[in-house]
Amino acid sequence: MPDNERIEPTMDPIGVPVDASPEEREAAQAAHEATGLADLQAQFAELQAQNAQLAEQYLRAQADVQNTRRRAEEEMSKARKFAIEGFAESLLAVADSLEAGLSIQEATPQQIREGAEATLRQLKSVLERNKVVEINPQAGARFDPHQHQAISVVPVPTGSAQEPNTIVSVLQKGYLIAERVLRPALVTVAAPQ
To answer: pLDDT, tens digit, for every residue of 101-124?
Structure first.
């Protein structure tokens, strides 16, 4: 066959012979459309099934997130409850010591003092075990507004070694718990000049 010779198609794009009658052409077109519609319906049904599956997975994931959040909140609540329970339990020994000291009717002032000192040591031990640390600055230390609360500012006498903005005296100790201020130390501070 020569290269310049043109080949006439025998079928149209939907597969109907070009020399088919109008009735054959119409029947073939209807069959083609029905096949295309069936394919589209099948694709649509498949997409609906995938959508339903994804929606179910999404709902399960949401439920898992809610359950995880609820469990975490319950665990935090239990941790708080049991943390305070442990602290309270350790304070019971201190309360027992105080009650025992008060029950002694014939105690001398020296015995009362010794009992109070022993109970104070016991209390300090309980606080230390529970990460409660004293803030007890020395006179002359720099005033730290994060750990100290100035109750009063006093003038520095001329010729005094006391520097301005330093602690003159501690009125009440402060406390830290896990490096966070539970109560600031109450102090008097030297006035700036």
So the answer is: 889 889 899 999 999 999 999 999
